[in-house]
Amino acid sequence: MWWGGRGQSFNIAPQKEEPEMGSVQGSRMPEPRSHQLGSCLTSGCLPGEQILAWAPGLRKGLEPELSGTLICTNFRVTFQPCGWQRSQDTPLSSEYDFALINIGRLEAVSGLSRVQLLRPGSQLKFIPEEILIHGQDFRLLRVGFEAGGLEPQAFQVTMAIVQARAQSNQTQQYAGITLSKAGQGSSSRKPPIPLLETFEDWEIERKKQGAKGWRVSTVNERFDVATSLPRYFWVPNRILDSEVRRAFGHFHQGRGPRLSWHHPGGSDLLRCGGFYTASDPNKEDIRAMESMLQAGHSDVVLVDTMDELPSLADIQLAHMKLRALCLPDSSVAEDKWLSALEGTRWLDYVRSCLRKASDVSVLVTSRVRSVVLQERSDRDLNGLLSSLVQLLSSPEARTLFGFQSLVQREWVAAGHPFLTRLGGTGATEEAPVFLLFLDCVWQLLQQFSAEFEFSEFFLLALHDSVRTPDTLTFLRNTPWERGKQSGQFNSYTQVYTPGYSQPQFGNSVHLQLSVWDWDLRYSNEQILQFHNPGYDLEHCPDSWFPRQQSNFMVAGPPSSVWLFSRGALTPLNQLCPWRDSPSLLAVSSRWLPRPAISSESLADQEWGLPSHWGACPLPPGLLLPGYLGPQIRLWRRCYLRGRPEVQLGLLAPTISGLQSELSHLQELLRKWTPRLSPEDHSKKRDPNTILSQSC
After folding, report:
1. Which of 621, 625, 694, 628 is nearest to 364 (CA)?
2. Tell me, what's the pLDDT at 607?
3. Which of 111, 476, 577, 669 is geometrically suited to a Cys-Cys bond with 586, CB 3.0 to 4.6 A?
4. What is residue 143's DSSP assignment?
5. Count of beta carbons in the 10 Å neighbourhood of residue 111
6. Which residues sit opposite 570 in a β-bridge?
7. What is the mean pLDDT of the chain?
8. Please, which pLDDT band fits residue 579 given cuts at 50, 70 and 90?
9. Which of 589, 229, 168, 83 is CA-nearest to residue 375?
């Protein structure tokens, strides 16, 4: 599969004129007399892309070894095999594209023992015989250089990569790449999913969720309440925008309570930042805050998101250990590899996220109530937990269209600091929270394969797209920064405006693409693989899930306020910390007394069934994943891409391992066979239909 070796993918816009080829210092290189750069020049380069250096080489580490050309540009490093030609059906240039911001480690090798780690600003001390490019997405590219007088080119292209990386780290000026293909075929390009940049997008989504008690607020339309919040969000009908403005000022970074998702049974899932206890609200402000938190319900549960979940520093450290362990030259012995994997604690953090998401899903689906996720910043684990709860509770979120809309709403529009968390700013607050979320989704896909319309390959494409500098989706920290960079605020209109032939931002600003424009970066054949062939159409949301499900959901206790901590519900006296005593959520959870862990499961507590009765019946559409021991697995196709010898064997070097793999495949085949007839296999699906329809 192409996902086994591909990470970053780039768009190719044909150029009428050949790009100028220069050395690292900018002097013009002589035209090559062979085919060494033929494939690159015939397929064209990205707009604004310049070739800095090139050298003939041999791709190593995979069988068979391929001869070709290693090329360094001001955007990327790419390896072009000899004889490679760009297909007319795909804008991809190569399976070996590495964006400069995606290169995590660069090594030069000479002989058997001479290895130099090259950081931005380093000076190469010898002519390399081989270089190793380690991607932050766990890929590896090994290129050996030919002898016979071409060594200077090997030195030159290696130093070009070093210097290009240094300039990339210093400037980080990726304004988004505009493709000529984006304007072909129509005068205006509609985004594949609603980008939630307009009032109309939010209103349509509100009606789709059936949230009748909520409205779209315009109080942050000019980002004067919070730059990290979207321009529009949902608040209760009875709350005025003037009350919203005052109430939000008493929450950290102005991120007050607002609706994330309305459950068809009547419950509401909210998210907000931590209380800003240094403020001094009056009685009217407290009343408005309580009304927003209650959201019209008598039963309210406050969930401290940070409780039992890893900190940002924990996530970053675990991911670094995981990357080091998965490197081909890892010093860990094979017989100690699994214990070393356990020592990274990455799978422990995946397990804790799924466990807490399962508990919150029970809170949302068991009774009609308001469930409020509260995190100090409201920009990291709130988004992770809210997204997982919706995936567990809503079949619609498990479709291709629904999942993309979920990520756009809970991560992109909600202001997750992608650039900072993925190390794009050089700050110390790096932590791949979004990648942890994708791993959790992959775990759900493995456990409930027939429930998801999208496949593992779609998750890999999304995983690899977080460091692709051709869109602004994951390259900014806030909606305000994203809109400012795209020129959206020059005329105060959205990027995609139906009915306009071109963006209304002036001639200097071009149409900006989103990461969801898959057809501009992937071929139709690749997009078809985004679809899960084992998806059961009976799980389509419209086929079973009426908009109201009051028959299985009961009202919560009257006028009750609860704190959910360590799997147990603890009653509280008030919602806000400015009344009789400080709220529990106003203080770091690590300093709070912990309630005893209940011997009964949360599901048993919520549905009022004693534990000795056995498992309680679950409402339709709710998934409760397993998270004990071997139920949480390593995402091998993603994390072990730099070890092709392991990929070929799928981590099954023993007879027992092969038997386990075979049993798993046979089980999947038995599940899928009744639903897939020969006629289904022969039908060709339209990739645009797959990506634009939820069912």
Report:
1. 621
2. 65
3. 577
4. E
5. 9
6. 563
7. 77
8. low
9. 589
> In whole angstroms, what is the distance from residue 535 CA to residue 605 CA?
32
Q: CA-CA distance, 491 to 514, in Å (whole number)?
A: 20
pLDDT at position 7, please?
Answer: 35
Give, in degrees to the nearest 5, the angle at Cα 627 between 622 and 631: 110
Residue 498 clears pLDDT 70, i.e. is over it: no
State how far the Cα of 407 lies from the Cα of 490, in Å rounded to an integer: 27
Rounded CA separation 651/640 (Å): 9
Mean pLDDT value across residues 432-452: 96
260 neighbors 267 (Cβ within 8 angstroms)? no
More confident residue, 212 or 424: 212
Given pLDDT bands bounded at 50, 70 and 90, which one contains residue 17?
A: very low
Are 46 and 67 in contact, with CB atoms under 8 Å apart?
no
Longest CA pairwise span in the chain (Å): 84
Say what percent of the chain tops pLDDT 90. 43
Instruction: Compute the distance between CA of residue 392 and CA of residue 372 in angstroms, rounded to an integer.
Output: 17
Q: How far is CA 320 from CA 7, 328, 343, 381, 419, in A?
A: 18, 15, 12, 19, 17
Beta strands 214-217 and 233-236, pairing class: antiparallel
Q: What is the pLDDT confidence band of residue 496, given thresholds at 50, 70 and 90?
A: very low
Top pLDDT among 391 and 465 is at: 391
DSSP type of residue 531: B
Please state, in angstroms and rounded to a whole number, the distance separating the CA atoms of residues 491 and 489.
5
Cβ 33 vs Cβ 669: under 8 Å? no
Integer Cα distance of 295 and 629 in angstroms: 38
What is the per-residue pLDDT across 135-187, written as a single tens digit (0 to 9) for each? 888 888 999 997 655 678 999 999 999 999 888 754 444 444 444 445 444 44
Task: Report whether 277 contacts 377 (CB < 8 A).
Answer: no
CA distances from 639 to 79, 325, 388, 454 (A): 21, 10, 21, 20
Look at phi and psi of residue 373 and say left if phi exceeds 0, alpha if psi is from -120 to 50, else beta: beta
What are the phi and psi torsion angles at 440 (to 5°)? -60, -40
Instruction: Output the DSSP codes for 346-402.
Output: HHHHHHHHHHHHHHHHHHHHHEE-EEEEE-SSSSSHHHHHHHHHHHHH-GGGGSHHH
- C-alpha to C-alpha distance for 369 and 366, rounded to whole angstroms: 9
Strongest mean pLDDT among 32-36, 281-285, 664-668: 281-285
The region of weakest confidence among 260-274, 345-359, 372-386, 539-553 is 539-553
Residue 174 tokens read as 């990726």
How many residues in the chain?
A: 695
Q: What type of residue sits at position 246?
A: R
64: cis peptide before it, omega within 30°? yes
Instruction: Give rounded-to-5 percent helix, strand, coil for the chain.
Output: 40, 15, 45
Distance CA 3, CA 458 (A): 9
- Name residue 360's amino acid: V
Q: What is the mean pLDDT of residues 386-392?
A: 98
- Burial tier of 175 (Cβ tally within 10 Å: 0-12, 13-18, 19+): middle
Global pTM value: 0.82
